[in-house]
Amino acid sequence: MACHTRSVSLPTRSHPFLLKAEEELNKLQAYIGSSSLTCEIMLDALKAVGHVYESINELLCMSSNQNGFSHMQHRRWIEQELEESVKLLDICSTSRDNLDIIKYYVQDLELATRRGDLVASKCKLRDYNLIVKKASRDLKMQIFNKNESPEGDSLVVISLLLESREITISVLQSIFSYLSRQIIDQKSSKWSIVSRLVNKRTIACKGDAASIRVNVEELENGVESLFRHLIQCRVSLLNICSL
């Protein structure tokens, strides 16, 4: 996204882009707090996060905003966020790659159940569970610097970046939490679930493998879109540091 030149002061809490970002963040809190996650909710959450970063990027790209960040203290905050942005990009990229792996496991599971191969279906089910659990565990292990949110309107964009980073991790965690419940019925044994897969071609009464594969593909595309928004914000932060 190209940066636009604007003759305005540093953004305050009443700035339209900031208000838009805060509106989307409020939506995200509701999504994450939902007791019954669905693929639609997860896709909406990914879109909302993308809208937040679109607004942040617009704020960062404001010419006068960049000049305002030239102050040494302000630059320190920008440099810290630049460092953290690398970690967030890595996390998003890894999540995207894990979704791609999960997609192929679901495809293999679909093929095995169509053939009526109970043993192969059990193996694919185990593989699916392992990668979903690993992806969820990896996200929980991610540690960011606990930077305190800066005070005052002059650094409100930094505060927004801090909040957005936390909600982004929560959304990614929710995706794998959702996927972990698509195949496993905690009240049933894995073998009985595989039996139902082969005999009825259903997955824990939540839908067949084909529908889950489609959901994973949609989520993968959503994470890819989010990754591009994060890249744009990082470029804007780099541009500020180069002034």
Anisotropy-based shape = elongated
The percent of residues in helical segments reads over 70%
Distance N terminus to C terminus?
18 Å
Please work out how many helical segments DSSP would assign: 8
Largest sheet: none
Total beta strands? 0
Pfam family, one: BPS1
InterPro entries: BPS1_pln
Task: Characterise the protein shown here.
With 243 residues, the chain is mainly alpha-helical. 75% of the residues lie in helices and 0% in strands. The protein has a domain at 16-143 and 210-241. It is built from eight helices and no strands. It has helices at residues 16-32, 39-61, 63-68, 72-115, 118-140, 156-180, 190-200, 209-241.
Keywords for this structure?
single chain, 243 residues, mainly alpha, 8 helices, elongated, disordered N terminus
In short:
This protein has 243 residues and is mainly alpha-helical. The protein has a domain at 16-143 and 210-241. The chain has helices at residues 16-32, 39-61, 63-68, 72-115, 118-140, 156-180, 190-200, 209-241.
